[in-house]
Amino acid sequence: MEYFYKYILLFSSTLVSVNCIMWNLEPNTQKCLREELQQNVPVIGEFEVSEAPRQSVDYVVTDSKGHILAKRQDISKGKFSFNTESYDTYEICFTSRVSPHEKGITQEVKLVTKHGIETKNYDAYGEAAQLKPIEKELKRLEDLSSAIVQDFSIMRRREEEMRDTNESTNSRVLYFSVFSMCCLLGLATWQVLYLRQYFKAKKLIE
């Protein structure tokens, strides 16, 4: 049983994503982070930017179509949240702005993002529903199991789509190869007949 719980925890760490990243943002530069997310996934982000005199940092969250999901200017510390509307690549960009008359300094940016069941506050949920600690943990494991089943379902559907695409491509390649061979055989036959007729016209062969 102990090994089973270890396996569940190890697998859940691959399914539930909590990303913490820190980098240095140079003056008048932009840093963007991208991630592919499934449909209807809640996302929460928490950021912190080191202070710098007469400098400001903006952030914007967009999808692949350019729709703005979250945006804020002149940030120092805060949070953002949104729900994904479809399977897409989502991007968050941090932009440093410094006056042309200022030299500017490097700022440190820290970003923590959570999505999936990690965005749920089970402590608050347990207090509201008056759940015992074991009941709260069982609720979290129930949500985790549902997320695992859903993730497997999505993976199986994508595998089926990829298999269908491969089979369709193989069929088209086969038909194209047969068509090319027929064209080459027809062209070779026409060349032989043409040369034979030409040589007969020149009386080179009977």
UniProtKB/TrEMBL annotation:
Belongs to the EMP24/GP25L family. This is GOLD domain-containing protein. It is a single-pass type I membrane protein. Keywords: Developmental protein, Membrane, Signal, Transmembrane, Transmembrane helix. Residues 1-20 form the signal peptide. Residues 30-140 form the GOLD domain. One of its GO terms (cellular component) is membrane. It is found in: Membrane. The chain crosses the membrane at residues 173-195.
